[in-house]
Amino acid sequence: MATRIAGISPRKPIMTNMPDDQMGPAIDAVAAACRVARSVQQDAGVRQITKDDRSPVTVADYAVQAIVAMALRDSMHDALIVGEEHAGILRKPEHEAVRRAVVDAVRMVHGDATEDVVLDAIDACDHDGTAERFWTLDPIDGTKGFLRGQQYAIALARIEGGRVVFGTMGCPNLSGDHGRPFDDPDPVGVIYAASVGGGCRQLSADEPDGEAQPVPSQPGDRAFEPGATVRVCESVEAAHSRHSDSQRVSSHLGLAVEYARLDSQCKYAVVARRQADAYLRMPTRKDYVEKIWDHAAGSIIAAEAGAVVTDVSGTPLDFGQGRRLEANRGIVCAASAAHPMIIRAIDELGIAAAV
Ligand code: AMP
Ligand code: MG
Questions:
Q1: 12-54: pLDDT as tens digits
Q2: 46, 60, 139, 158: which has the fewest Cβ within 10 Å?
Q3: 254 by DSSP, 3-state: which?
């Protein structure tokens, strides 16, 4: 965790003052949301709407946002939430069928929820990310993976003073068995939870109250001698991460490379579990700024398992800039031995300077 890398001071070992009794309800909400998302994904005709930015949003995105917002509101009345979705499009008359399906999905957890309660819960997640303390939620991260029947994540995190202090991430299709291929969806799934200075834990998605498995932090990771193989994970979507740049980085390092492409923040968990040495997110456009909900939960899960998480310049992520990571470009999440050499390669190739 407190690894010193070139130009970066070690993380201050602060502990969150978030009470323990807020972590339990947050994990329970994510576990309930995993069950609902799985059931929606298994429905052959998953209903979806295309948003103004042409990205898809499904019944599961809306239902999960409502379920988590209702749970946080019930356990802490003044919770501020920065959520990805809002119900504006869903309220339109032409989307009545999707709206009904969302309410039905929420009723799997809150049997008496009305349409108004559900829509208002979705819209309550409209905080702008400027408060000292707030939550951020990506109800279905990797919606394209979700629609393909592949990996996706339900990602909830607590930000205090511009830093992530707690994160929990449900990965309904990721197996606790590391031997299972990522493209073979698991019938059970896993949930991760991490708090700053408190380490990272793994739970079974169907038994969130069961025994948590610590995800060990191994600061003295393996060295990368020339000719060694580096295992890199990255987006399936070439529009989200420039695949040719991650290839340039690996060949610049003189390392053989094995790629794993999967959707969503599950990639941070894959580094935390040491199934990959790095998660690279190489910018594809100068004007794209990463969203806080795409990285908050995943980054603390990887960091608490001993990985180093920065942007492509080696700058730590700053979650105190509002809804987007305005001070950062791209992501490099890597084992502590691999991180400095990846940042050096990106710098020598002029990739960071170009964004
Ligand atoms: P992934 O599953 O890793 O490909 O990431 C999915 C996330 O990529 C979505 O939640 C979007 O918020 C985000 N996204 C959309 N467009 C871009 C882009 N041009 N560059 C990086 N991320 C993007
Ligand atoms: Mg997302």
A1: 334 555 666 789 999 999 999 999 999 999 887 778 899 888 8
A2: 46
A3: coil
Our measurement of the distance from residue 116's CA atom to the centroid of its chain's CA atoms, rounded to an integer in Å, reads 29
Residue 76 in tokens? 């802490």
pLDDT in tens, 61-109: 999 999 999 999 999 888 999 999 999 999 999 999 999 999 999 999 9
Q: Which atom of ligand 1 is nearest to the CA of 237?
A: 4
Query: In which order are the strands placed within the sheet that holds 308-310?
Result: 256-261, 229-234, 278-281, 331-334, 308-310
Please tell me the distance from the alpha carbon of residue 183 to that of residue 56, in angstroms, as a whole number.
21
Q: Which residue has the tokens 């040495």?
A: 277
d(C-alpha 295, C-alpha 317), whole Å? 9
- Strands across the sheet containing 213-215: 81-83, 133-141, 153-160, 163-171, 190-195, 199-204, 213-215
- Written as six digits, the tokens of 242 are 């420039």
Contact 229, 255 (CB under 8 A): yes
Catalytic residue among 58, 61, 141, 310: 61
CA distance readout (Å), 148 to 143, 144, 175: 9, 6, 17
List the structure tokens of 35: 């069950």
Whole-angstrom distance between the N-terminal and C-terminal Cα of the chain? 27
CA of 137 to the centre of ligand 2 (A): 9
Q: Which of 130, 114, 109, 30 is nearest to 72 (CA)?
A: 30
Q: State how far the Cα of 312 lies from the Cα of 61, in Å rounded to an integer.
A: 29
Contact between 178 and 166 under an 8 Å Cβ cutoff? The reply is: no
Distance in angstroms (rounded) separating the CA atoms of residues 266 and 170: 9
CA 178 to each of CA 153, 215, 271, 275, 290: distance values in angstroms, whole numbers, following the listed order: 17, 13, 12, 8, 29
